[in-house]
Design brief:
Largest interface: A-B, 35 and 39 residues
Number of helices of chain A: 2
Distance between the termini of chain B: 13 Å
Distance between the termini of chain A: 6 Å
Oligomer: heterodimer
Radius of gyration of chain B: 23 Å
Largest sheet of chain B: 4 strands, antiparallel
Structural class of chain A: alpha+beta
Strand content of chain B: 5-15%
Radius of gyration of chain A: 13 Å
Order of helices and strands of chain A: EEHEEHE
Largest sheet of chain A: 5 strands, antiparallel
Strand order of the largest sheet of chain B: 6-7-5-8
Order of helices and strands of chain B: HHEEHHHHHEEHHHHHHEHEEHE
Strand content of chain A: over 45%
Helix content of chain A: 25-40%
CATH class of chain A: Alpha Beta
Shape of chain A: globular
Number of domains of chain B: 2
Structural class of chain B: alpha+beta
Shape of chain B: globular
Strand order of the largest sheet of chain A: 1-5-2-4-3
């Protein structure tokens, strides 16, 4: 078990997306090109896409969310910054 | 610019590529076995060459190009350059190195078993049973509990591998079976299990890289092989160590080719270990048996190995074995469900305590405490959705303070690796 905490240099965040119904494949193609995005998951439920961003600063995170919002089809983004995490 | 690909594909690409390279280099093993007198000498010269090759390849891969190392562009994106091992890695490296030394000496010992008539193919199929050893090891480390599907597919792959590589030309000796079950398989279990632990480690907040793991594994394995051979030499008044060094110079060409293939095969294998369970990576890699067929045909064409069997019944058995194996591997691939659970908490419950409780739920792969509308996001890996409810959601509900939770099944995923 590894516990990473605040001393960490990188900022990790989940960005939850609501999409307009339609051509989401194209939107995902665009997202796959964004450098600071570490993972993109298409999900079934309240949200449509969960994006995991790994950035050096909050400024960069703003840029990532900005870039995502520019993509055609993205209706709403909700950003959740990770304060502490346990991973296998 | 980094391109994200689907993690599941990458895992199989890596494990299959590793198996193909390994099939070629194990063909060369057979030739080297013919040239060298005994397995102690063969093991030592094999690891000496492995060290030379691993070191020079890692050094070459460390050369920077456009601000990145060559290795990070072609082999493992986490690789920067050759580095010393960290304190926290030492223990795992000792166990993985010991495992490699034991399994290699045992594997080569089979080459020289008189009862096998120089045909390790009679016994080697049984070394695939290491997959089952790994399943057991994973069930002991409780975070990785194998499900029924894991066990079923492992058994299918193992038996398929045994059938696929069976050869009815030699006899099966008790001593050889003892070597396989008590030496090769446990050694190989240590080897896979701890290499995986190393790959899962974070070094400077970045994932550990396969190239340094392989290099240091060879260093530790060579040290253990020298030590074990030294003990054997002292008690038996032999000079295997010196002859090992001589053999590595004498048969440099073949040994170099073997070590070169092995290096790349293992770097890819270690990377695949970083993505999936050790038992599954091993199962995919056991497809080496399929890829070794063309290698055997080529070698026997040149008279370097025993002729390939043409008996129709034997061929039928082999083909059935392979089909079974591929079915088992695809079951592994297709039967994994992932999900996110978003959790909102009532005020007044400590975050630390809730995180720990969430983490103890089996199948939970990641727990993140958040600032934002939700308090936690939990990532779940499970083989069946039924289990997802029974074992996971019910446990989430039992945690005091959970106000609201949302299950989001992952349908498709891309990731930077």
């Amino acid at each position: 078990m590894r516990v990473s905490n605040k001393v960490k240099k990188m900022i990790n965040a989940y960005i939850l997306l609501n999409m307009k119904p339609g051509n989401n494949d194209k939107a995902i193609e665009e997202m796959r090109k964004i450098e600071d995005i570490a993972k993109i998951s298409i999900v079934a439920g309240e949200y449509d896409i969960v994006v995991r961003a790994q950035v050096k600063s909050l400024g960069r995170l703003l840029k990532v969310t900005d870039n995502i919002q520019m993509i055609n089809g993205v209706m709403k983004t909700t950003t959740q910054i990770i304060e502490k995490e346990i991973t296998a | 610019m980094k391109i994200k690909i689907r993690k599941r594909y990458l895992f199989f690409v890596l494990a299959f590529a590793s198996a193909i390279i390994s099939a070629v280099s194990s063909g060369i093993d057979t030739i080297a076995g013919d040239l060298i007198d005994n397995y102690w000498i063969l093991s030592i010269s094999c690891f000496i060459l492995a060290l030379i090759v691993s070191f020079s390849c890692s050094a070459f891969l460390s050369i920077p190009f456009n601000g990145k190392s060559i290795g990070s562009m072609f082999l493992d994106p986490s690789f920067r350059r050759i580095r010393l091992i960290r304190k926290k890695e030492v223990f795992y490296h000792i166990l993985a190195g010991l495992g490699n030394a034991i399994t290699t000496i045992g594997y080569f010992a089979l080459f020289y078993d008189k009862d096998l008539g120089h045909s390790p193919s009679v016994i080697l199929p049984f070394s695939q049973i290491v997959i089952l050893y790994l399943v057991i090891a994973e069930s002991i480390t409780d975070k990785d509990t194998p499900t029924l599907i894991d066990i079923q597919s492992s058994v299918i792959v193992t038996f398929g591998a045994i059938l696929g590589s069976i050869s009815l030309t030699g006899t099966i000796s008790v001593s050889a079976l003892v070597i396989v079950f008590l030496v090769i398989n446990p050694g190989s279990m240590l080897f896979s299990f701890y290499q995986r632990k190393l790959k899962m480690m974070k070094i400077n907040e970045r994932p550990n890289d396969a190239i340094n793991i392989r290099l240091w594994n060879v260093i530790f394995a060579l040290s253990f092989t020298l030590l074990i051979t030294l003990i054997f030499d002292v008690f038996n008044n032999t000079t295997n160590i010196i002859e090992g060094f001589i053999a590595s110079v004498q048969f440099f060409g073949w040994m170099f080719a073997m070590a070169f293939g092995t290096f790349f095969s293992f770097v890819l294998y270690i990377r695949s270990l970083g993505i999936g369970k050790a038992s599954i990576a091993q199962a995919v890699r056991s497809s080496v048996i399929i890829f070794s067929i063309p290698v055997t045909i080529v070698l026997s064409y040149f008279g370097l190995a025993d002729p390939f069997p043409t008996d129709p019944i034997l061929l039928l058995i082999k083909i059935i074995g392979m089909i079974i194996m591929m079915l088992g591997i695809s079951t592994f691939a297709l039967a994994l469900t992932k999900a996110y659970v978003f959790i909102k908490m009532e005020p007044g419950y400590p975050i630390e305590g809730t995180m720990k409780r969430l983490w103890t739920i089996k199948g939970v792969n990641r727990v993140a405490a958040l600032a934002g509308p939700y308090d936690f996001i939990v990532k779940i890996h499970t083989r069946t959705l039924v289990k997802g409810y029974e074992r996971i959601l019910r446990k989430v509900q039992e945690i005091p303070g959970v106000k609201e939770y949302r299950w989001q099944s992952v349908l498709k995923e891309w990731e930077d690796i």
